[in-house]
Amino acid sequence: MTAIKDDFYDTINGDWVQNATIPADRPVTGGFIDLNQDIEDEERRVLQAIHDGKQVAPDLLKEFVQFHKMTANWQQREADSVQPLVDVLKPLKALKSWSDLQQHWSDLIQNAYTTPLSYGVAPDFKQADFNELWLSAPQLILPDTTSYADDNPQRDILLNVWRDMIRQLLLATGCDQEWAQHIVDQALAFDRLIAQYKMSNEAASDYWQLYHPKQLRELSQSVVDVDLKTILTSLLGQTPEKIIVSDQPFWEHANEVYRAQHFDMIKAWMIAQAAYETAPFLTNELRILAGTYRRTLTGTAQAPDQNKAAYRQAHLFFADQVGLWYGKTYFGEKAKNDVIKMVETMIGVYQQRFTTNTWLTQETLRKAAQKLSALTIHVGYPDKLPEYLAQRQVDSTQDIMGNIMQFAKAAVAYSLGQWHKAPDRNIWQMPADLVNAYYDPMHNEIVFPAAILQAPFYSLEQTPSQNFGGIGTVIAHEVTHAFDTNGARFDEKGNLNEWWVASDFENFEERTKKVEQQFDGLMIGETKINGHLTLSENVADLGGLSAALAAAKQDVGFDATQFFMNYAKIWRQKAKPEYTAMLAAMDVHAPARLRVNVQVKNFDTFFDIFHVTEKDGMWRSPKDRVQIW
Ligand SMILES: [Zn+2]
């Protein structure tokens, strides 16, 4: 039996970790994931009751139920066999030449094909109330550019699994061996080319490094073989003058990627992408085959069964509608008011801390308080959905893929239609039935979907100290994002703007550097943690714990033990080593165990209540403890 003094996380969660079983069709269990599983079970129960005629489908679920009938109709899926994939591949296979691709590029994008021209329409970092066109770099097969290093033993194993999977998917369409082999070889060669220039996840975790506005003329000159003006004009209906590049290192080399002589590679890469994206919606055998790479990457033992798959595939396209129904059905006014009160308490704590802060000048603190006051709070579920989702309808005359292509096309049209408009701040980026929360620096807003408001995060049966250690730390974590290493660079309107007194910002960075060092190089099994990649989230955790603890202390029945113990409990997790390794390469969050053990050691209260001394594993000397907010 471990003691709290030696390993806090293990003492609280050790028995649970020992006994927990990771479901065969998942790479991880515990905390957020268990709650998501409960919600999925409940939604599937309701879905079944509707299909059995025991319950009438509520309006918000009607189309979801219709689409689920399609995803669950395995007989039809077997009968359709590979034909939907053959149809999807047709326009790609028909591409004859580079100039042919130039002509069809915008059509392909509008028809929701994944092309190597990765784009998005999103707020201008320096004018957050105005949407611009952004260009980035294509997705890689492996989790990160660093995964392509010669000394990564997993690289070739994973790429070979991907190669085999795509080859088999293509062979299923009746093509010959040689062609399938050619496609995977060329697609992999193009992937390797992208990996040479793309930003690493670590570099991209610094948002302010992602802002490079360009003139169309300038950008066109950097890709001489691409008819960028014609493609973008066709997409937007107007010629854009300004385009924002997020992945500058990649675009500096774009001319070496988007070349006429790479036509074969690019065509093959698009064919591979389309096969990978389409196959999950075909027969059961092809669905399972299409999950091979992902399962290997995450260490997942087996594919979900057909019933689960049918539910998840339908949910994928109706998550916002189902989430809205979930929020309206399960999240009452009482809970909403409770949470809003907690958020206001936390903001009050922050305001208070700004007035007693000793390491920042009044000028910076005044602006920080301004940003805090301007923070928008969303709780429970959104007031509305984007039009294209609210109106999404299933066309019963078409098959699954026909419907999916329509859904995807509508999503592309919606996104492109947002260009040069003001972002709609009532639209959420997360469905209400997802156990999660977020801060958006461009909107200076925090969002708490209904799903996260459950035990052990929050329950009326828990003590206030437990709730502060649970949902309190989550709320304060999101508030802290407004002042983490990314949030600190955006002002109260959501614009990238240096609002700090310069010397204050230096002090801030000195402190955040210490947080980076606390995490950098720590090991979880064989996996090394990147302190820079996870910095903004670790700063948010530290501030979250700090503000929630301060708020909890205001309660007459405050119990520090309960506070810290529930904090450890919300992060209990058991994951496959492959999954941990994958996240370490791409996730901005530190692994659950470190979010507990590394963070609590920054709090004097923790050492006091558990009598931790320099002889103990959980010790950290006072000079090495960090507090920022
Ligand atoms: Zn966060």
From TrEMBL:
Cofactor(s) named in the record: Zn(2+)
UniProt domain Peptidase M13 N-terminal: residue ranges: 5-382
Annotated source species: Leuconostoc fallax
GO annotation terms (biological process): protein processing
UniProt xrefs under CDD domains: M13
Family that this chain belongs to: Belongs to the peptidase M13 family.
Keywords (A to Z) from UniProt: Hydrolase, Metal-binding, Metalloprotease, Protease, Zinc
Protein name as annotated: Uncharacterized protein
Assigned GO CC terms: plasma membrane
Peptidase M13 C-terminal domain residues: 436-626
